[in-house]
Design goal:
ADH-like_C; six-stranded parallel β-sheet; Quinone Oxidoreductase, Chain A, domain 1; NAD(P)-bd_dom_sf; ADH-like_N
Length: 347
């Protein structure tokens, strides 16, 4: 077995440094993965800049891995074996352990947050799924508060899990940022749960939002789009659930609250802390994308849905380069802004 290396964050607001790292050993319900691709999320740039969520220094972070299993924990053998192609969501965010960070050649992944990746899907494509999937399931299905983290209050949408054969539930959800990684995945998971999705994104990403399953799409650059969203929901006549805001900026909050006001309130699920003041008829909260609620989806849904083409690896990869030294460039590009793609580094 070759030695491990990782891109370490030595202190906040500095570039990551590629150094040797201990070879991870999986616990009983874990697998150790040789990474062939990792993906970058806006959360990662925030961690690098501020050190938020870092529990021990130096740190290895990152959430998305795709690769091959090289070691299986004693209780994980029922689903995984050495050599399996897998995708997984790493949990350094809550554990703080370096071996749980994605930006390394070898990473530990909890068996309950991993799934077999079909042979026909490249690692660089499949790596778009893990973090976005976990966030989507937490946004849609969590019924109780998530992990105890400062400022985190998971909104209780309590919607059904996705199904390979969903039945329409007569409910509509607005997804703001429908072409983002988390937005497009939440559209897929909501649609697979029988929810009708109205997506808000830029016009040049309409095809991506529709590919994810959005029933209707509105251009956020249209000055009348809020009124058009409200009119479209009313015309369809289904029960309005609320807004999932995958952007979570002051502007999107303002527009989301206007939509909620038109329907007498509802849920406002955010990827950042919600507005400090919301009406009493709006249940607002920030999702936290690590929760055991996602376990049944990882275990029972992800692999067959990928095999049947019912779960798509969206948005498509933007491959920055190969090697851990490319992670810094990928983080910089993520901070600068990406539209309609997922930044990926090959290993």
């Amino acid at each position: 077995m070759s030695a491990n290396q990782a891109a370490w964050l030595i202190k906040a607001d500095t570039p990551l440094e590629v150094r040797e790292a201990p070879m991870p050993t999986p616990g009983p319900n874990e697998i150790a993965v040789r990474n062939f691709a990792v993906a970058i999320n806006p959360l990662d740039t925030h961690m690098q800049k501020t050190g938020i969520f870092v529990q021990q220094w130096p740190a290895i972070f990152g959430c998305d891995v795709a690769g091959e299993v090289y070691q299986v924990g004693a209780e994980a053998g029922g689903r995984f074996k050495k050599g399996d192609r897998v995708i997984g969501h790493t949990v350094n965010l809550v554990s703080g352990r370096p071996e749980d960070g994605a930006y390394a050649l070898h990473t530990v992944v909890q068996a309950d947050k991993a799934a077999i990746l079909p042979d026909e899907i490249p690692f660089t494509t499949g790596v778009a799924v893990p973090f976005a999937l976990e966030a989507a399931v937490c946004a849609l299905s969590v019924k109780v508060p998530g992990p105890s983290m400062p400022g985190v209050s998971t909104p209780a949408l309590g919607l059904p899990y996705p199904s390979l054969d969903p039945k329409p539930l007569g409910k509509t959800l607005v997804i703001y940022g429908g072409s983002s990684s988390v937005g497009s995945m939440t559209t897929q998971i909501a649609t697979a749960a029988g929810i009708r999705v109205v997506a808000i994104c830029s016009a040049h990403n309409f095809a991506l939002a529709r590919a994810a399953g959005a029933a209707s799409v509105f251009d956020y650059k249209d000055p009348e789009f809020v009124a058009k969203v409200i009119e479209g929901i009313r015309a369809h006549g289904e029960e309005f659930i609320g807004v999932f805001d995958a952007i979570s900026s002051p502007e999107t909050y303002e527009n989301g609250l206007k939509i909620l006001e038109a329907f007498g309130g509802g849920h406002l699920a955010c990827v950042h802390p919600p507005p400090t003041e919301v009406p009493g008829n709006v249940k607002a909260g920030m999702i936290f994308a690590v929760d055991d609620v996602a376990t049944p989806v990882w275990r029972d849904y992800v692999t067959p849905a990928l095999q049947q083409g019912k779960l798509k690896c969206l948005p498509p990869p933007i491959i920055v380069g190969k090697g851990l030294d490319k992670v810094n460039e990928a983080l910089q590009r993520c901070e600068a802004g990406v539209s309609g793609g997922k930044l990926v580094v090959e290993m």
